[in-house]
Design brief:
single chain; alpha/beta; Nucleotidyltransferase, domain 5; 2 domains; 23% strand; globular
Length: 448
């Protein structure tokens, strides 16, 4: 009987640990899904400005033809093009000089007051974006909304997403600065309804739907009826595609779909003919975007945005672990790993790779990508890299995941020269979550 009870206790401990681990993974997946959705709007906002300036601000005849000679849009871009501060360099190839900037990107949830979209709302998504004008590169640090922090002004311990509901954007900025030890230069707030409205303004988005998707939620007014293949999604279909999660991959699949959707939106924005839709996009931004940036600053960031390569953006999430105190669930930040991530993404501190040192790698791949994965493994071994682990994984988005501080974006770009098969993979810094083994980096070879 004693042995039986001890076995039950051990099984219970194992089940509890397994449940906590699965809950942690689920929490990270949900947070990443919101991170991607928020980044979609951020890119749309900047690239929309870039399109307007590139195609309209430098061509007054184009503006007059499409919007009218005396329209507000024509006058707006004509003023930008003839600004006395920037007539000698209208493209602003080095915005703000060489100094890096930290921009706090905030996504707020729905407000009960239709006349005020911002007051009293919680920040559903918090991303600190570090922009380096000299290298035209962007690092994005995602801050979990449940992070346990101290709020300024004697408000005590709270989740970080409560800062905006209590003290508005000023308290949110102050909380981020105090918690991470960084300086926030500017902020951009985006409302939850922005994506749907921008897709409507663009007239739809081309996306490859990787599987049949059928789902009806009558109480939530959500109806999804998509078949596998290429589609030009309208606003309602886009919402369904982004929210669909009823498949074996759960939130992982939804996160990947949002990444593919982002690429489809960016492709639409790059089409010259979409400049005629600029007034509608600007109107959406005016309603659903709030920022303390001046028109001049927005234009400078927008001009830099057109040079950005989405595959070279480095992203990370503040490391930590879930913890429940009573009925409240917190994300407890790991102090050492959090500082490591901040040093790397915000302060750009990296380590150099000793050419004599052995670098280890993991390769995980979809079942239909076995041949491609084997080719990558052979290339890595030829480069002198120890492939310590390889296994199957269900993913639809290829990534290069760095686990070590010495594996930088520059290292990845150099590796692509001798290993061209990994070109175009999204770069992620994740020092604590290993997909296969404790290695310096992991290559995720995904398939549709």
């Amino acid at each position: 009987m004693t042995v039986y009870r001890q076995t039950n206790k051990n099984n219970k401990k194992f089940n509890d640990r397994s449940k906590n681990y699965l809950n942690e993974i689920k929490r990270k997946q949900q947070h990443q899904a919101k991170f991607i959705r928020m980044f979609i709007v951020f890119c749309l906002f900047l690239l929309g400005m870039a399109l307007g300036f590139c195609y309209a601000g430098l061509n007054s005849d184009f503006c007059a033809k499409h919007f009218g000679e005396n329209s507000a849009i024509t006058k707006f871009f004509d003023k930008l093009a003839t600004s006395s501060d920037n007539t000698s360099n209208p493209e602003f190839t080095l915005p703000f000089g060489p100094k890096r900037k930290n921009v706090l990107l905030l996504g707020v949830d729905a407000s009960e007051n239709e006349n005020d979209l911002w007051t009293g709302t919680r920040t559903d998504t918090i991303i600190l974006v570090n922009i380096d004008p000299r290298t035209k590169s962007v690092n994005a640090l995602s801050i979990p909304r449940d992070s346990k922090v101290y709020l300024p002004g004697n408000h005590g311990v709270q989740k970080i997403n409560a800062a905006h509901a209590i003290g508005g954007v000023d308290m949110t900025v102050k909380t981020v600065e105090d918690t991470l030890g960084v300086k926030v230069d500017r902020y951009i707030m985006v409302h939850d309804n922005a994506v749907k409205s921008i897709v409507e303004a663009l007239g739809g988005v081309d996306v490859y739907v990787e599987k049949n998707m059928h789902y009806n939620d009558y109480s939530g007014h959500l109806h999804i009826n998509l078949t596998k293949g290429y589609h030009h999604l309208n606003p309602a279909e886009a919402v369904g595609y982004l929210r669909f999660r009823h498949d074996p991959m759960g939130d992982i699949g939804r996160t990947h779909r949002q990444q593919w959707f982002l690429r489809g939106v960016l492709a639409e924005l790059k089409k010259p003919e979409n400049i005629t839709k600029l007034p509608d996009i600007v109107s959406v931004a005016r309603k659903y975007v709030k920022t303390d940036m001046s028109l001049y600053e927005l234009t400078q960031f927008a001009m830099m945005a057109k040079h950005l390569d989405m595959d070279k953006i480095e992203i990370a999430t503040l490391p930590g672990a879930p913890n429940k105190r009573g009925a409240i669930s917190y994300w407890i930040l790991d102090p050492d790993k959090t500082q490591d991530v901040i040093n790397r993404l915000i302060y750009r501190q990296t380590e150099s790779v000793d050419e004599a040192a052995q670098v280890s790698a993991s390769v995980v791949y979809s079942e239909n990508k076995s041949a491609e994965a084997q080719s990558i493994i052979n290339e890595l071994k030829t480069s002198g890299i120890n492939v310590a682990c390889q296994s199957h994984i269900s993913k639809t988005h290829s990534q290069f995941v760095a686990h070590s501080a010495k594996i930088t974006n520059q290292y990845y770009n150099n590796l692509k020269k001798t290993n061209p098969s990994i070109a175009g993979y999204q770069f992620v810094y994740e020092p604590s979550m290993y997909l296969c083994a404790d290695t310096d980096f992991t290559i995720v070879v995904a398939g549709k």
